[in-house]
Amino acid sequence: MSDQSRRKFIKHLSSTAALLGIGQLAAMGKEQEQVQLIQPEKLYTANDKIRIACVGMGIMGFGDVSCALKVPGVEFVAAADLYDGHLAKVKEVYGNQVFTTRDYRELLHRKDIDAIIVATPDHWHDTISIDAMEAGKAVYCEKPMVQQIEEGHRVIATQQRTKAVFQVGSQRVSSIAMAEARKRYLAGDIGQLNVVEARMDRHSALGAWQYSIPTDASPKTIDFDTFLKDTASLPFDPVRFFRWRNYQAYGTGVPGDLFVHLISGVHYITGAIGPSAIYASGNLVQWKDGRDVPDVVVAIFDYPATKEHPAFQMTLRVNFADGSGGGEYTRLIGTDGVMEMGWNDFRIKKHKLSAAPGYGGWDTYNTFTKAEQERFVQQYQGKYGAAREKAAETSSAYAAPAGYDDRLDHFKNFFAAMRTGQPVVEDATFGLRAAGPALATNLSYFGKKIIQWDPLNMKVI
């Protein structure tokens, strides 16, 4: 495309689209492919100050706080963590004025805290979220919402009773790319959905949760007994504390950590509320470091037909032993096309069948006598006429602008709900409908059986 043609093309685009020459999907397709650039909505205004605290200042805690502070009118006032080094890092990064404590309960009744981010290991999510809502705080809880299915129902009941603003931190559901994907799905761009397939593979120590352990880790610097909560009493073990994702007692393994992202996105796009049956298989292949969860998991989810969508099957895979180097995708496959999701971008490839099926090639036509072939062709042309036999193929791509951050939009939605009373994008019910099937995947894997799931009531049958 010449510079003149490019300028002419951009000039005639609507306010919500432009030509994007780079991006995750651009590298997947043809050079100079026209990608519609989705524009985020206008920033929320800071009507009043919102003061936040964070419980759990690990990787997600620091990331969430940093992102939340980009929203106008937000101030970070307090943090709780069981490792003294994390609390020292808080003051190093955000200043000595930030109040720090090992005991999250000290944050609950402070009048200078409006909202609490829960970024702890999974087995603490429900307790802290419920305590915070009971204390009148808004809660932003990292995914998965809970570690056990029954805990989710208690979180839902608390939110409904207290009317607290509560949002789960699966940020993709706030992505403008996801919103556009939902529009395209509902418009019928891929026909009738029948299969969803997704993978999220890795091949690195850090990707497999072998996180760094500080040299000063000791019973003096870490409150290990509180970390254990109601799990089995054990001697101090910094590996369990810093690599908690590797253990059933504190985390939720591959399904709760990664499948939940994929499930949340599919539920948002399709309007699904969950599968009716789940079966998982896998193995511990490479990372035999003392963990008691698999590093390869494949799961099949059967989604029944509802008024929102047809019946479809979803297959999810995570492989931490992927010698090809890793990679990820989510594909929603329909009768007329496929939607290939990136993180904040996606492509739709349409492959619509022709009304004329064609003949010849690998076909019984070649076994007919010459006379029968002539009669068949005459009949065929009378039925289909000049209809093209080749399937119609088209491709279109969409992407958020360079530098776009879906987690920032997720926090904007959370704070807007606090300021205006508008609904959050991922409430406790949505959170359990995403987390529940992921947790049931663990039940299937360890129990070596198919799990029957009630998606409406969010319970194992």
From TrEMBL:
PROSITE patterns: TAT
Signal peptide span: none
Pfam families: GFO_IDH_MocA
SUPFAM superfamilies, alphabetized: Glyceraldehyde-3-phosphate dehydrogenase-like, C-terminal domain (SSF55347), NAD(P)-binding Rossmann-fold domains (SSF51735)
Gene3D superfamilies with a match to the protein in the record: Dihydrodipicolinate Reductase, domain 2, NAD(P)-binding Rossmann-like Domain
GO molecular function ontology, one term from the record: nucleotide binding
Protein name (record): Gfo/Idh/MocA family oxidoreductase
Organism: Chitinophaga solisilvae
